[in-house]
Design brief:
The structure holds 2 protein chains of 2 kinds. Chain A is α+β, with helices and mostly antiparallel strands. Chain A has helices at 3-6, 14-20, 26-38, 40-58, 66-88, 92-108, 237-246, 273-297, 301-314, 321-328, and strands at 115-117, 133-138, 143-148, 152-167, 174-179, 182-186, 190-196, 199-207, 209-214, 220-223, 226-229, 258-261. In chain A, a hairpin with a 3-residue loop joins strand 3 (143-148) and strand 4. The longest helix of chain A is centred in the last third of the chain and has 25 residues, at 273-297. The termini of chain A are far apart. The radius of gyration of chain B is 19 Å and the shape is elongated. Chain B is built from 8 helices and no strands. Chain B folds into 2 domains: 14-97, Rna Polymerase Sigma Factor, Chain: A (Orthogonal Bundle); 115-186, Orthogonal Bundle (Arc Repressor Mutant, subunit A), CATH 1.10.10. Classes of the chains: A alpha+beta, B mainly alpha. Chains A and B meet through helix 4, helix 5, helix 8 and helix 10 of A and helix 2, helix 3, helix 5, helix 6 and helix 8 of B. The structure holds zinc ion. Residues 10, 12-13, 35, 39, 41-42 of chain A line the site of zinc ion (ZN).
């Protein structure tokens, strides 16, 4: 044990820390430093503090991976953009974007059941099917309606965002959300649907699963924790707004509709299709960037420029677009 | 891999680059926020990992940059470098989070302590110091990490945390004392 080290006998030992922390005036500081040269005990104390600092600096912190750092960057910029645009640039699209995000977070906060679709009385003569309980939360200007048919609870969603929670049993009616370009069938679930510009933009599933049947496309099952979204070449302002809060912006050109995770709190750890896709895209982007740089360093300016153009074509919103732009100026 | 050869812009000091970027962020230019992120996020993530724990670091850094987007216009170069200003935001966010999570955190730390004493390896000073660091109060840990790991002076730390410098000195003194006691108590 080294209890004696903790209770120093030199009356000036406090100066060791005082010098270290800039607590002394210049004159006193030089006196303290002189004392340090003469007093072994204070020197040892000073050495102990140095060692402590060294050990603290050596405390292992496992570095964040490049992908994690990138993903965090995307989340931050998307959210900052959403917040900034909501604050200072209110246009129709922007307002809509923010209200969608607001709706999304309302859901996260658990404030469900803004509207409750009551079981229809017409069911009474069809005991073999009972109405499912459908809670629906519509975002601001959403146009929607609901009808109960013999075997189906039907919700027509023309435009906007609707979040639904369906509680059903084996004998419940089918629950179908009709959208301008098809329909989405619930299979006992919590989910949301975004429609804009006459087309379904996104479907996200929290629990259970849904089947999406859109015109001209094969039926698609979206399961819990995943989200389908329209490919990014369409006009998708509302979807972008959800992307900003629900998932990283998948900027890689994806020609097919994608299934993407909606893990909101920590997309970084979800081993979802989206994060894998994103990781793959980030790696492709890195390779494309490094390829151009390598060519430039090898003095192959023409090839480097071609590679830079290819990068910009493939990753118009890439992280390295500014650096790549400089390659083109060579 | 860095690309110094591609830097065609005139050389500015890092501080000047940051100040310009903060000005742009204040004017709503989010690409400048991305630039600040690229320059400082990794260091801030390491700092947050040490001061708050790895599991919290990303959330804290996200909150930091979102805050920067909102308050960039309040930065004036007189109260320290942009870097220390960013550290200050991160540090205060950690403290705010921990105030609300304090009870929970204390419970978790107590759980950790129970097993810590069973550990008797003699060449594990780093592990010991890591444990010791985690056993410090949030306030002491924050100050000692800023001073000894990040190399900030007590004046700078006082500015960052918006507390009197005397408080910083006191916390630092107690943090060292606690750490040495823990370190010496477990390593000999
Ligand atoms: Zn002495």
């Amino acid at each position: 044990m080294s209890d004696d080290a903790k209770e120093p006998s030199c009356a000036r030992s406090w100066e060791v820390e005082a010098v270290r922390d800039g607590r002394l005036l210049a004159a006193n500081e030089s006196a303290a430093v002189r004392h340090l040269g003469e007093c072994a005990e204070c020197r040892k104390l000073s050495g102990d503090f140095d060692r402590l600092g060294l050990l603290l600096r050596e405390v292992e912190v496992s570095p964040d991976s490049d992908v994690a750092v990138r993903r965090l960057r995307q989340r931050i910029l998307a959210q900052a953009d959403a917040e900034l645009t909501g604050r200072s640039r209110p246009s129709h699209a922007r307002t809509r974007k923010i209200s969608l995000i607001a709706a999304f977070f309302m859901i996260l906060a658990g404030s469900f059941a803004a509207f409750r679709l009551l079981p229809s009385p017409t069911l009474a003569h069809r005991p073999q099917t009972t109405a499912a309980t459908v809670d629906a939360l519509a975002e601001g200007n959403t146009h929607w309606s609901r009808q109960t048919e013999t075997d189906v609870e039907r919700i027509d969603l023309d435009d906007g965002t609707l979040r639904l929670r369906v509680q059903r049993t084996q004998s419940s009616k089918r629950v179908i959300v009709r959208v301008p370009d098809g329909e989405i069938e619930d299979v006992g679930t919590v989910f949301y649907v975004v429609v804009a510009h006459g087309a379904t933009q996104a479907v996200g599933v929290d629990e259970g699963e849904v089947v999406i049947r859109l015109k001209g496309a094969n039926p698609l099952v979206v399961t819990a924790g995943h989200r389908w979204q329209r490919p990014s070449d369409s006009v998708t302002v509302p979807v972008e707004s959800l992307k900003s809060s629900a998932m990283p912006l998948g900027k890689g050109a994806d020609p097919e509709p994608t299934l993407a995770s909606r893990s909101t709190t920590n997309p970084g750890t979800s081993d979802s299709v989206s994060s894998r896709t994103e990781r793959a895209n980030a790696e492709r982007e890195d390779r494309a960037y490094l390829h151009a740089i390598r060519l430039l360093r090898e003095g192959k300016h023409t090839e480097a420029k071609a590679a830079a153009k290819e990068y910009l074509r493939s990753f118009p919103d890439g992280f390295r677009r500014e650096e790549i732009g400089q390659v083109l100026q060579y | 891999m860095t690309v110094p050869a591609l830097r065609l812009v005139p050389k500015l000091t890092p501080q000047a680059v940051d100040t310009v970027a903060l000005g742009r962020v204040a004017n709503g230019d989010l690409s400048a926020l991305g630039e600040l992120y690229d320059r400082h996020a990794r260091a801030l993530l390491r700092f947050a990992s040490r001061a708050a724990g790895q599991h919290e670091a990303e959330d804290v850094i996200q909150a930091t940059f979102l805050k920067v987007a909102k308050v960039a216009s309040t930065y004036d170069g007189r109260s320290g470098t942009a870097r220390s200003w960013l550290y200050g935001i991160t540090a205060r966010l950690i403290q705010e989070r921990h105030r609300s999570l304090a009870r929970f955190a204390r419970a978790v730390l107590r759980l950790g302590e129970a097993s810590a004493h069973a550990f008797t390896a003699t060449d594990a000073h780093r592990l010991d110091i890591d444990r010791g660091l985690r056993r410090l109060s949030d306030a002491k840990r924050m100050v000692i990490v800023l001073a000894e790991v990040e190399g900030y002076t007590c004046d700078e730390i006082a500015l960052m945390l918006k507390v009197p410098i005397g408080t910083i000195w006191t916390r630092l003194h107690h943090a060292r004392k606690d750490l040495r006691a823990f370190y010496e108590g477990t390593s000999s």
